[in-house]
């Protein structure tokens, strides 16, 4: 099959492209490069454009003989979504609607959708499974839930085969050039603070969790990418046609614990200035969200292989190799 990866020059998308190519798939990247970097996908056909541009999408699908789409493109910052909800509805919901229009018009029969654990909101359970009620608490999560339901309803009407993959908290890197260079995710955010010899920020420490900080299920980006390969294979081979599944490790790690691991691996744990500082909680942040990954294991035989130290070590190596510098430089 030939897969179009929207957002394929971004952090997660480029890892998906790498994994799919390693699995022998033909890949075309479609990215507006607002946050993506063409240097991440130097040997793959790249079409620069927005998923809101239906004409360009349609031409791309037909010109490259695309038979399946992995839709990673979209806006993903919770705090920004609270400030700019209409921007998120335009990019994430209208962008998906336009994409689905063109997918159906081009006769493309397979779609893997990047969803999010944000669809669950603030679940009051130790492990979140796919039957847990979805009650998103921020516009980002709402746009992902609307996207899932749009895909399900289109599939019911047309026979589109799909997999909605609900990512938990993604970290790490497979190669230095694919490193997450943004500072909206926890790990690079802490790296940035340490590089400047500033205390890492912990957003809130009065949550109903063991140490008062948010608890998350961190999953290596290489594992997330391999989940896309497994989903694409499952669809292509007819083993799944309508899958919604979590992508996580099933292990909760608090933000404070994650910051301590980063301090240890970066060699700054003994430095007084690297002790975390508490900032006000961010709007829309739930206290605890940890995955049950049993459904994707049963459906596709997928399971995460990397642990938290793997994520932080690979990310730190990539961060320093990309010239971001050691602490204090």
Number of domains: 2
Helix content: 25-40%
Give the SSE order as H and E letters. Answer: EHEEHEHHEHEEHEEEHEEHEEHH
Major sheet: 7 strands, parallel
Low-confidence stretches: 325-329
Task: Find the CATH superfamily of the largest domain.
Answer: NAD(P)-binding Rossmann-like Domain
Report the β-strand fraction as a percent range. 15-25%
Q: In CATH, what is the class of the largest domain?
A: Alpha Beta
Q: What is the count of β-strands?
A: 14
Give the CATH topology of the largest domain.
Rossmann fold
Total number of helices? 10
Features:
2 domains; Rossmann fold; UDP-galactose 4-epimerase, domain 1; UDP-glucose 4-epimerase activity
Give an overview in words.
- There is one protein chain.
- With 329 residues, this protein is α/β, with parallel strands linked by helices.
- The chain has two domains: 2-169 and 218-247, NAD(P)-binding Rossmann-like Domain (Rossmann fold), CATH 3.40.50.720; 176-216 and 250-323, UDP-galactose 4-epimerase, domain 1 (Alpha-Beta Complex), CATH 3.90.25.10.
- The chain is built from ten helices and 14 strands.
- It has helices at residues 11-22, 54-63, 78-83, 85-105, 139-158, 186-195, 221-236, 255-266, 294-300, 308-321; strands at residues 2-6, 26-31, 46-48, 68-71, 110-116, 161-167, 169-171, 201-203, 215-216, 218-220, 242-247, 253-254, 277-279, 288-289.
- It has a seven-stranded parallel β-sheet with strand order 3-2-1-4-5-6-11, sandwiched between helices. The protein has a three-stranded mixed β-sheet with strand order 12-9-14. Strands 7-10 form a two-stranded parallel sheet.
- Helix 1 (11-22) packs across helix 7, helix 2 packs parallel to helix 4 and helix 8 (255-266) packs across helix 10 (308-321).
- It is globular and about 60 Å long.
- The N and C termini lie far apart (47 Å).
- It is an enzyme of class 5 (isomerase).
- Residues 3-239 form the NAD-dependent epimerase/dehydratase domain.
- Belongs to the NAD(P)-dependent epimerase/dehydratase family.
- Keywords: Carbohydrate metabolism, Isomerase, NAD.
- One of its GO terms (biological process) is galactose catabolic process via UDP-galactose, Leloir pathway.
């Amino acid at each position: 099959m030939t897969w179009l990866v929207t957002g394929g020059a971004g952090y997660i998308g480029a890892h998906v492209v790498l994994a799919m190519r390693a699995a022998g798939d033909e890949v075309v990247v479609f990215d507006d490069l607002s946050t993506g970097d063409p240097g991440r996908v130097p040997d793959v056909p790249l079409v620069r454009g927005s998923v809101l541009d239906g004409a360009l999408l349609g031409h791309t699908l037909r010109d490259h003989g695309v038979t399946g789409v992995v839709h990673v493109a979209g806006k993903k910052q919770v705090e920004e979504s609270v400030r700019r909800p209409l921007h998120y509805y335009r990019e994430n919901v209208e962008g998906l609607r336009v994409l689905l229009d063109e997918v159906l018009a081009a006769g493309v029969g397979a779609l893997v959708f990047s969803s999010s654990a944000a669809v669950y909101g603030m679940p009051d359970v130790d492990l979140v499974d796919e039957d847990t009620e979805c009650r998103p608490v921020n516009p980002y999560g709402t746009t992902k839930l609307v996207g899932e339901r749009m895909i399900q309803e289109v599939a019911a009407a047309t026979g589109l085969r799909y997999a909605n993959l609900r990512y938990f908290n993604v970290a790490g890197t497979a190669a230095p050039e694919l490193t997450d260079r943004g500072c909206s995710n926890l790990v690079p955010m802490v790296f940035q603070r340490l590089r400047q010899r500033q205390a890492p920020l912990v957003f809130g420490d009065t949550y109903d969790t063991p140490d008062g900080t948010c608890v998350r299920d961190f999953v290596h980006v290489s594992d997330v990418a391999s989940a896309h390969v497994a989903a694409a294979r499952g669809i292509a081979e007819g083993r799944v046609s309508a899958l919604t599944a979590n992508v996580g490790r099933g292990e909760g790690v608090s933000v404070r614990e994650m910051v301590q691991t980063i301090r240890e691996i970066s060699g700054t744990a003994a430095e007084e200035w690297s002790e975390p500082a508490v900032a006000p909680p961010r709007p829309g942040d739930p206290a605890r969200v940890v995955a049950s990954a049993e459904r994707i294991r049963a459906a596709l035989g997928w399971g995460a292989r990397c642990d938290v130290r793997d994520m932080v070590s690979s990310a730190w190596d990539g961060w320093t190799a990309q010239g971001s510098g050691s602490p204090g430089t």
